[in-house]
């Protein structure tokens, strides 16, 4: 088998695997044991009543799954009730209701939280966002940090405005823990890089907070040198990396789509949309089109 084909197979296999969400149905911590699927099934009549009370309108299935993928960067499991994160109070996708569920502060099923959270997530209702900011800012911040929300610029900007002088608040945005190890969210670093470019002091504070954390706790990382090199690289960004030496830029999200041009391997690009397997990119010459994500690397 040709070595280029082998490399492509490994890249695609890895990307496909990384897109599968883990099953967090069971939460165990010491003596605490919760089956969230059974819990939600038990609470479903109350959830239905609250959604009806506030006249929540379900989005289409396609839009629902697309939005969730944009936040968690993974595809949902096929079952109706999918726990999205490993936590005592997780976010839970209930697919037939087209909502993300989270418990309220004082009651298990808080209709106002359910309504406004889902109104913003799936309809970008800014009035609902303002209500969440005013009444449940901690929950909103937790959502941004839990899923590393970098594509929603409105939500990310709000979080940065709230935490720009909070070193810990910035660090938990850039890093996440899995199986006792720390990992960096490179997409988040690039998003913050771009968002704070016009405010040098805030930009430096954020990046320096990220640098300090990995240097201070390097023993918690598998690849601290690579992360440090990335953070100290002023040219960090998205680059083409293709074994053929170039990638085709296409008019649409398909290998059969018209080729608009080519971009050389090693060339830096702007990513305008990364919500599908085909990224909408712009070259340094200004040419826009689609390149498969397996040909794009962050470094």
UniProtKB/TrEMBL annotation:
InterPro entries: SH3-like_bac-type. It comes from the Bacteria. Residues 235-299 form the SH3b domain. This is SH3 domain-containing protein. It comes from Capnocytophaga leadbetteri.
């Amino acid at each position: 088998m040709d070595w280029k084909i082998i490399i492509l197979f490994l890249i695609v296999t890895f990307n496909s695997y990384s897109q599968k969400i883990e099953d967090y149905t069971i939460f165990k911590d010491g003596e605490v044991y919760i089956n969230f699927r059974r819990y939600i099934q038990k609470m479903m009549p109350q959830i239905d009543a609250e959604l009806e009370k506030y006249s929540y309108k379900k989005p289409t299935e396609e839009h629902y799954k697309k939005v969730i993928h944009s936040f968690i960067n993974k595809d949902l499991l096929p079952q109706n009730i999918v726990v999205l994160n490993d936590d005592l109070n997780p976010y839970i996708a209930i697919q037939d209701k087209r909502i993300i569920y989270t418990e309220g502060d004082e009651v298990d099923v808080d209709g106002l939280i359910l309504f406004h959270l889902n109104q913003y997530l799936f309809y970008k209702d800014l009035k609902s966002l303002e209500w969440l900011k005013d009444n449940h800012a901690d929950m909103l911040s937790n959502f941004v940090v839990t899923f590393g929300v970098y594509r929603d610029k409105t939500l990310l900007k709000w979080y940065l405005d709230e935490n720009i002088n909070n070193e810990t608040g910035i660090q938990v945005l850039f890093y996440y823990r899995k199986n006792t190890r720390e990992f960096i969210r490179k997409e988040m670093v690039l998003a913050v890089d771009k968002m704070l470019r016009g405010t040098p002091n805030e930009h430096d504070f954020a990046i320096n907070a990220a640098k300090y954390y990995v240097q201070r706790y390097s023993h918690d990382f598998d690849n601290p040198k690579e992360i440090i090199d990335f953070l100290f690289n002023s040219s960090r960004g998205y680059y083409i990396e293709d074994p053929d030496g170039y990638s085709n830029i296409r008019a649409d999200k398909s290998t059969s789509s018209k080729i608009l041009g080519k971009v050389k391997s090693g060339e830096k690009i702007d990513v305008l949309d990364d919500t599908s397997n085909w990224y909408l990119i712009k070259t340094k010459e200004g040419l826009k089109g689609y390149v498969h994500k397996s040909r794009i690397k962050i470094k």
